[in-house]
């Protein structure tokens, strides 16, 4: 406890780090404040049905990412998610389209072009999603919240306000990244997810109180499992396979270069959270198509406590893990970089044999990583099925929400520790330097 207090004092004593923290908290406060401002033309007292209809499925996932702003019909109802969708699309295009890959390799100018195209695409995606959100607000069960006198202006004002709101949130994220602490986009998503935690705990506590003395014991067991899952997720996020790499010696004049021994870290979960998002989106889309003619099929494909849903979902996550890893991981490029820098893996010839060797190792470690990622995805359904817990509370036992929170917290703590070590303070861990993530996916 004493070391923890000392570490907090050291963090606060660094003026640059203190200003970054205060700046980040200030922008996050603005974001959360805007999440409670209701769109013009909507009666906030009639939003109960909207909140109930947005539970479960992709709508529930979206509402979780924006901190409940979707179910509140807020000006930030779409949050940062259109920008995330545009970023993912542009990232895939830079992999699949050679012209886009060429632009990305142009250095700083290429990166600025990609970012600018991403912003333009964000406007288009937001306008499309805003129009879909209006249709959702006018659907039966939600239309009672609309004010009839404002009907003639509702469509155009809502599209404009939601688009501007998303662009403003995107701007907040960029400012946090530039002048604050951590990746702004990821932190905004994490804050939206954490905003639901107090209400989820309160709902679970009230449900356990009604069960009597045994309910509190069960609640304690649930928190123990939650801590264990978080520790396991930290291991999954940080897990790497280190491939030894040697660099050939070079003598230039009287000086010797190279000859060092290093490691090539290959992440067990290189795909991050993307396979879970893709699997949920695919199942939601299939459920929507099938549900047009059969409502029971739609319910089956959106019920995460159903055994068949868990099986299909797990297979989809494993398949998307291999697919996304193959898209973002290029062993041939790694082998060429090693060869260009006079590096080699002991016992493996440079060039194509090195690429095959790295690809084989990556395939071997991706399989257990994909299985663990699928397990993380179905854990909320398992815990809700076994412990009969509330839906909101069960979402924190795995899935996209917990994986994003763990990754963002680790990345932010790593940046804080770097600031401390630069000024010759002790790190956050008494046993040594904290091993952070090797790379942060753009957008997520």
UniProtKB/TrEMBL annotation:
Pfam families: SecY. Its main location: membrane. It is a multi-pass membrane protein. Keywords: Cell membrane, Membrane, Protein transport, Translocation, Transmembrane, Transmembrane helix, Transport. It is found in: Cell membrane; Membrane. HAMAP family: SecY (MF_01465). Belongs to the SecY/SEC61-alpha family. Component of the Sec protein translocase complex. Heterotrimer consisting of SecY, SecE and SecG subunits. The heterotrimers can form oligomers, although 1 heterotrimer is thought to be able to translocate proteins. Interacts with the ribosome. Interacts with SecDF, and other proteins may be involved. Interacts with SecA. This is Protein translocase subunit SecY. It comes from Ferruginibacter yonginensis. The lineage of its organism: Bacteria, Pseudomonadati, Bacteroidota, Chitinophagia, Chitinophagales.
